[in-house]
UniProtKB/TrEMBL annotation, chain B:
InterPro entries: MetI-like, MetI-like_sf. This is ABC transporter permease subunit. Keywords: Cell membrane, Membrane, Transmembrane, Transmembrane helix, Transport. The keyword Lipid metabolism does not apply. Residues 62-242 form the ABC transmembrane type-1 domain. It comes from Paeniglutamicibacter terrestris.
């Protein structure tokens, strides 16, 4: 089974995968310098689901771009699997907010998923097989020949998730991945991500402005706020493995954590 | 596209009528006697085309012209797409070459012909060079436009998944620029035939252009016009065929825009 294969490829739960120390980011220089992030610290262990939540405009996308190696922070270090990175790293895959643009419209969904594998030098038969397996894992079995524009937004985001999974990275970085789909699709995608985390053991770092989403999905919620943004709170959710859109959100601990985050964010 | 699906028959009638009216006007003009007497009438031209179609000299000349036009066009397309993708995707190259490219685009290539003839002689090689020089600019300029319009999200994706440069060139840059490239390639196909015939008329290099001049000199105006019109017809067929290829290749683009 693929699921088994994927799970085997992941490191043992609890191993430190990412270590961010003193990360700062700013645009411009001198008097016009605009500080976005300051002295950010973050640890990601294998098998963890971490949500980073913060208000709109706080610099969440900048943070994720730094973590993924797309932007170089002005100060501080990002370690992935024990080495300091200076650009995109094969242990990191990203699911972008703008799924409709990050998928290539001239490729079938199978080719979209297989494309990063082609970049790794994997042969055609092998990469197509892996692509089909990962499409099946996100609930798109047998849809490999379709083009992204033949699919709904939710399905396109599933393809983007399949592409990140197929890349077999150790950490999946997700930038507001469900921000532009309707509510029902959003719940479906949230539950899909929870299922993938449980079954494949992938480590996920998700950035969102939605407090409920952050809490519902994560083992640990990291709250960022202020200007320049820094970590202002960390909450271990403790909801365990099984989550349910109704039951989990009705949990008193959910309401408590929610109030705590909202209170913390309102201070700004 | 839309009209043809609603009433294809009616559209055809309209188009045929437009051609018939044009031919009728021509006949009237000839009959009125206001035009120089050497101008052939519609019937003479049609019989001229008939004569041309059975003449081996005509076919040899036409295929010669088409081959040189095709060769020049192919060379220009390959060079234009290659350089266009490189220039358009690398910011500093794009900025530094923009003046050169604007200049090259407005440069009258036909005026270069005497120089090229001097260097290479009045032959097919010279013709191919002139045709490629004329075709290069539309392809180059369009490809640069296309390569510039790289989606930020696509660029991020390529970076995150560490796609190697060559693979990126072939499977990301080229297809995303393709809608623009196709326009440039299609425009330059018509230019290729036009320039090839023009070069032959001026330089007397062998081909349909030279045949047209020869027929003129032999006072066979009907044949000269017949050659001209038939060559135009071939050019039109080429353009239609290219449009079909383009539509097939760019299905994703049309769908995306819907």
């Amino acid at each position: 089974m693929t699921m088994q294969l994927q799970a085997d490829a992941q490191p043992e739960a609890g191993t430190q995968l990412m270590k961010v120390r003193g990360m700062s980011m700013s645009y411009g220089f001198g008097a016009s310098e605009n500080k976005i992030l300051e002295d950010l610290n973050l640890d990601v262990a294998s098998g963890e689901f971490i949500s980073i939540v913060g208000p709109s405009g706080v610099g969440k996308t900048t943070l994720l771009r730094c973590l993924s190696g797309l932007l170089r922070p002005k100060a501080g270090t990002i370690e992935v699997s024990g080495t300091v990175i200076s650009g995109p790293h094969p242990d990191l895959a990203v699911v972008f907010q703008d799924y409709s643009r990050s998928l290539m419209p001239w490729m079938t969904t199978r080719d979209n998923v297989a494309f990063p594998l082609q970049g790794k030098g994997m042969g055609k038969v092998e990469r197509n097989r892996v692509a089909d397996e990962n499409l099946a894992a996100v609930g798109l079995e047998g849809q490999g020949d379709k083009f992204p524009w033949e699919m709904s937004g939710g399905m396109q985001q599933r393809v983007a998730i399949a592409r990140a999974l197929a890349y077999n990275a150790k950490v999946l970085l997700m930038d507001e991945p469900f921000a532009s789909v309707d509510a029902q699709t959003r719940f479906d995608l949230e539950d899909l991500v929870i299922k993938l985390k449980q079954e494949l053991g992938v480590t996920i770092l998700l950035v969102t402005h939605d407090i409920d989403e952050a809490l519902y999905l994560a083992d640990k919620v990291v709250v960022i706020a202020e200007k320049p943004a820094t970590v202002v709170d960390e909450i271990i959710t403790g909801f365990g493995e099984d989550r349910d859109q109704l039951a989990t959100k009705a949990d008193p601990r959910f309401a408590d954590a929610r109030a705590r985050i909202m209170h913390r964010l309102r201070k700004d | 596209m839309k009209e043809t699906t609603t009433a294809p028959g009616w559209l055809l009638v309209q188009r045929v009528a437009a051609i018939a009216i044009l031919l009728g006007l021509w006949s009237l003009l000839i009959a009125s006697g206001t035009m120089p007497s050497m101008l052939p009438g519609v019937i003479q031209i049609f019989s001229g085309i008939g004569e041309a179609l059975t003449s081996s000299i005509f076919w040899a000349a036409l295929s010669r012209t088409l081959l040189t036009a095709l060769a020049g066009w192919a060379i220009a397309s390959i060079i234009g797409v290659l350089f266009g993708l490189i220039i358009g995707s690398i910011k500093f190259l794009d900025r530094s070459t923009s003046i050169l490219i604007d200049f090259g685009r407005s440069f009258p290539v036909l005026a270069l012909m005497p120089v090229v003839i001097m260097l290479l002689g009045s032959n097919a090689r010279m013709e191919i060079v002139v045709v490629s020089l004329s075709c290069l600019w539309p392809v180059l300029v369009q490809t640069i436009y296309g390569a510039r319009r790289q989606e930020a999200a696509v660029a991020d994706t390529v970076a995150v998944f560490k796609i190697p440069a060559l693979l990126r060139f072939r499977r990301v840059l080229l297809p995303s620029a393709l809608p623009f490239v196709a326009t440039g390639v299609r425009i330059s196909a018509s230019i290729a035939l036009l320039v090839a015939v023009g070069v032959e008329v001026i330089s007397q290099a062998p081909g349909i252009g030279r045949q047209i001049t020869l027929m003129q000199q032999a006072q066979r105006w009907d044949l000269a016009f017949a050659y001209l019109i038939f060559t135009g017809l071939v050019g039109w067929c080429l353009a239609v065929a290219l449009q079909q290829v383009e539509n097939r290749l760019l299905i994703w683009k049309r769908q995306e825009n819907d």
